[in-house]
Design goal:
By secondary structure, the protein is mostly beta strands. 7% of the residues lie in helices and 44% in strands. The strands form 6 sheets. The protein has a 26-stranded mixed sheet that branches. Strands 45, 46, 47, 48, 49, 50, 51, 52, 53, 54 and 55 form an 11-stranded mixed sheet that branches. Strands 23-26-29-32-35-38-41-44 form an 8-stranded mixed sheet, with no helix packed on it. Strand 45 and strand 46 form a beta hairpin. The protein is flat and about 80 Å long.
Length: 679
């Protein structure tokens, strides 16, 4: 019985083992199939460019192995020799992109094409005597998560080489950090080899969401020992003739330097010998950021720290250095959004070009040399002197409350308060320096004196008739300030609680040129000034309105008058004042490209074109509607959409609907033209 039991158990065991083998085979088959499915995702293919069949990125025969790279593939260029340079003509992706050292690389990205690199773009250092060089160019777009210029490989030869990446593509987006690395090696022969690194921005716009790091990989035992042929890591905006490269940084901190003795940021390097017509543009567009100003921190300040500088984004931008630093802008300074605070570190500001503020600017010691000083936002000055030493300069205000500056010095040349209201606050002094300096106030503009305990004062220090030009300046407590104004003439502000009076709006009084020290103003009844920039009334009118996406509408008025000037005239036109944080922005341009909400033009003999600016805070659907139509019936009003190429007869259709995509810069801004012509 025992044996039979054993035999039965053996049979059961045999059949159990068979079942297990069959089950194991099924499990193995399932696992193997799963692995087959997972392998392409877990292990990216490495695909190298050969260019054997031409230049097209999307041709399989141009790669080894012969397959077009996909989003999970690692791409290499110049790791093996190749015949033709690669060209991207359609949207494509890859996992990473590595530039080798075998030959100079020229990667072209054509218009409307985008190359998306989901990981890093890396330009390798060379270990031998080759000099790495890669250029990305074209009218298209390239995006990567990080950019590495010089991977840190040592040189095994006694050479100083610069690994150079040139960006000349229209749009280059780095969603993370940029690393520019130099590395120094101590050779067995006793010599030293340097692999330097340079990122050169020569055209288009580069946006960096993270940090730009200049890293110097110098052995510790060589620290302080090198005096010549020192290693460097650098970023440079290199301006060629006709090119306007722009770098926008949004990280905080955006710029990091390991060794400022050798590693440099150069935001203005003119390759044309300062005779070309290109420009370098730097934008701080992130949250609270520090603006690099001090050469000791790794900033090249020759010929200036910045040529053109834009402040945008959110938060407050201030200088990175301590008191005594100077922020020098060789071209134009534009405070587009939020705040530029020059008071927190009490740094000086020098702007050689034009200044435009639509955000908030806090000034301390500042000099403006450019022809246009324009304030459309909030501007606050300290008690430090703001200087205007340029030749021909115009001060423009387009705010609701006027622009106030405490102490101002005008030297050398002609100064004009051209539009809006400028305010000399209580205790403030504006001084016209000498006979080489002249000042005027245009019709429709004005200077207001504010007085509390101390009067506001306007001082003419010269003795000649040149000190006053254009319209005459008047004041309720002083005689007419005319062309025979005597030396050291002083025009003081009115007393406390008296109405604010623009200086060019009142009749002259019959008292002396100099203000008596304690003259009472209780019985003085100055004339009430007329409204600045009044809405025009005369003539035939067209009115168009931008609305949509639950935003408050904005309107433009076109007024036709027989003797109107196509250029901006404060007596005829109304300067556009876009509201901060408004849902839409809508205005027309005058012939001299001034933004206008009311634009007077002469009746067109045959046809005229008016450029229209339209923007919105959010993507969505918007409409332009003709709401006022007093123009003669023989005129046609066409709205041309430069983005789509279409044209709409507003007198017939009434409304034109379009879309704004905030990811597409061509879908807003200077998108429209208003064509008015006779039938």
């Amino acid at each position: 019985m025992l044996n039979s039991v054993i035999i039965n158990k053996s049979e059961d065991l045999t059949s159990f083992n068979g079942a297990c083998r069959r089950s194991a085979l099924r499990c193995f088959s399932a696992v193997f199939f799963l692995l087959v499915l997972l392998i392409p995702r877990a292990y990216a293919n490495t695909i190298s460019w050969t260019g054997n069949s031409g230049t097209d990125w999307n041709t399989a025969a141009n790669w080894s192995p012969q397959t077009v790279p996909g989003s999970g593939d690692d791409v290499q260029i110049a790791m093996i020799a190749y015949a033709n340079q690669p060209v991207v003509s359609a949207a494509t992706q890859c996992a990473s992109l590595t530039f080798g050292t075998l030959q100079p690389i020229l990667l072209t990205i054509n218009a409307s094409a985008t190359l998306t690199v989901n990981g890093a773009i890396t330009l390798l250092h060379s270990e031998n005597n080759l000099v790495p060089m890669a250029t990305i160019t074209g009218a298209g777009n390239i995006t990567c998560s990080s950019l590495v210029v010089g991977n840190g490989d040592f040189s095994y030869v006694l050479l100083t080489k610069t690994t150079r990446l040139v960006s000349a593509v229209s749009n280059f987006m780095v969603t993370g950090n940029i690393y520019i690395n130099s590395v120094t090696s101590f050779l067995l022969s006793g010599g030293i080899g340097h692999n330097n690194s340079l990122l050169s921005l020569q055209a288009g716009q580069m946006n960096v969401s993270g940090q730009i790091n200049l890293t110097n990989m110098l052995p510790a035992f060589l620290t302080g020992e090198l005096t010549s042929l020192t290693p460097y890591a650098r970023l440079s905006i290199d301006v060629a003739s006709g090119q306007n490269p722009k770098l926008k940084v949004t990280g905080n901190p955006a710029l990091v330097v390991t060794d400022p003795n050798w590693d440099k940021f150069d935001f203005y390097n003119d390759l044309t010998g300062f005779n070309g017509n290109g420009s370098a543009n730097m934008e701080y567009g992130g949250a609270t950021q520090r603006i690099m100003t001090n050469p000791d921190s790794g900033l090249n300040v020759i010929p200036q720290a910045y040529q053109n500088l834009t402040i945008s984004g959110t938060g407050t931008k201030s200088t990175a250095g301590s008191s005594g630093d100077t922020l020098t802008v060789g071209g134009n300074l534009y405070v587009a959004l939020d705040s530029l605070n020059m008071q927190v570190n009490h740094a000086a500001l020098a702007v050689n070009g034009n200044f435009r503020n639509t955000g908030t600017t806090l000034l301390s010691n500042a000099q403006f040399f450019g022809g246009a000083f324009t304030n459309l936002g909030d501007l606050v000055s300290s008690t430090d002197t703001v200087r205007f030493p340029g030749n021909i300069q115009a001060l423009s205000d387009s705010t609701s409350g006027g622009t106030s500056m405490t102490n101002v010095l005008f030297t050398s040349g002609t100064k004009t308060v051209s539009t809006g209201i400028f305010i000399i606050p209580a205790g403030g002094t504006w001084k016209v320096a000498d006979d080489s300096t002249a000042m005027g106030v245009s019709p429709g503009a004005g200077i207001i004196f504010r007085s509390g305990g101390d009067p506001a004062t306007l001082v003419f220090s010269g003795s000649g008739p040149r000190q006053l030009i254009g319209v005459n300046i008047f004041h309720p407590l002083a005689a007419k300030a005319n062309r025979s104004l005597p030396a050291s003439a002083v025009v003081k502000g009115i007393a406390a609680n008296s109405p604010a009076v623009p200086v060019n709006r009142l009749p002259a009084l019959k008292n002396s040129h100099k203000l008596p020290g304690q003259q009472s103003v209780k019985n003085l009844k100055p004339a009430v000034p007329s409204k600045i920039n009044p809405n025009v009334q005369a003539g035939q009118e067209l009115g168009i309105r931008l609305s949509g996406n639950k935003a408050a509408a904005e309107a433009i008025l076109i007024v036709f008058r027989k003797k109107a000037n196509m250029r901006y005239m404060p007596s005829e036109d109304k300067y556009a004042q876009p509201k901060r944080n408004a849902g839409v922005v809508f205005y027309s341009y005058s012939a001299d490209h001034m933004p206008l909400s009311a634009n007077s033009i002469p009746f067109p003999v045959t046809a005229c074109t008016i450029e229209i600016f339209a923007n919105a805070a959010k993507s969505g659907s918007y409409s332009i509607t003709l709401f006022t139509n007093q123009l003669q019936a023989n005129y046609q009003v066409m709205l041309k959409d430069k983005h789509t190429g279409s044209a709409t007869d507003l007198r017939q259709q009434g409304t034109y609907t379009f879309s704004v995509n905030k990811n597409d810069k061509t879908s807003y801004g200077n998108r429209f033209e208003l064509l008015i012509k006779t039938n």
